[in-house]
Amino acid sequence: QVQLVESGGGYVQAGGSLRLSCAASGDTFSRYAMGWFRQAPGKERDFVAGISRSGAVTYYADSVKGRFAISRDNVKNTVYLQMNSLKPEDTAVYYCGAVETSFPPRRLNSYNYWGQGTQVTVSA
């Protein structure tokens, strides 16, 4: 089992940046592909970005491509989401998920473990 704790959310103006972190514990972090998802009020939880367990392969939703960057540090057992050029439509609770496989799936139900989420609010 792996436990996940997100941090780094907050309030930012449009055009600003935030860096989210997701710290993992309880199991060998490098066994897990990781994903970031987000859920806005009244909407489903959607895929944002994913990274393979080695860190060599990354995937992004079209809506964040070129603005967000996912990375991981398998020594610090942490995955990051650097978010630049933020827009009001990026406002959501952001969750990290883990699944014991090589490459990160885009499907929500493929992930076995989730953090508690961190709120990101982008003002216009």
The gist of it:
The chain has about 120 residues and is an all-beta fold.
Helices and strands, with pairings:
Layout: E1 3-7, E2 10-13, E3 18-25, E4 33-39, E5 45-51, E6 58-60, E7 68-73, E8 78-83, E9 92-99, E10 113-114, E11 118-123
Parallel strand pairs: 2-11
Antiparallel strand pairs: 1-3, 3-8, 4-5, 4-9, 5-6, 7-8, 9-10, 9-11
Q: What does this entry look like structurally?
A:
With 124 residues, the chain is mainly beta. 0% of the residues lie in helices and 50% in strands. It is built from no helices and 11 strands. Strands 2, 4, 5, 6, 9, 10 and 11 form a 7-stranded mixed beta sheet that branches. A hairpin with a 4-residue loop joins strand 7 and strand 8 (78-83). The protein is globular, with a radius of gyration of 13 Å. The N and C termini lie far apart (40 Å).
The percent of residues in helical segments reads under 10%
* Largest sheet report: 7 strands, mixed
Helix and strand run: EEEEEEEEEEE
- The pLDDT mean sits at 97
- Rg, alpha carbons: 13 Å
Structural class: mainly beta
Q: Tell me, briefly, the overall form.
A: globular
Relevant terms:
mainly beta; globular; four-stranded antiparallel beta sheet; 124 residues
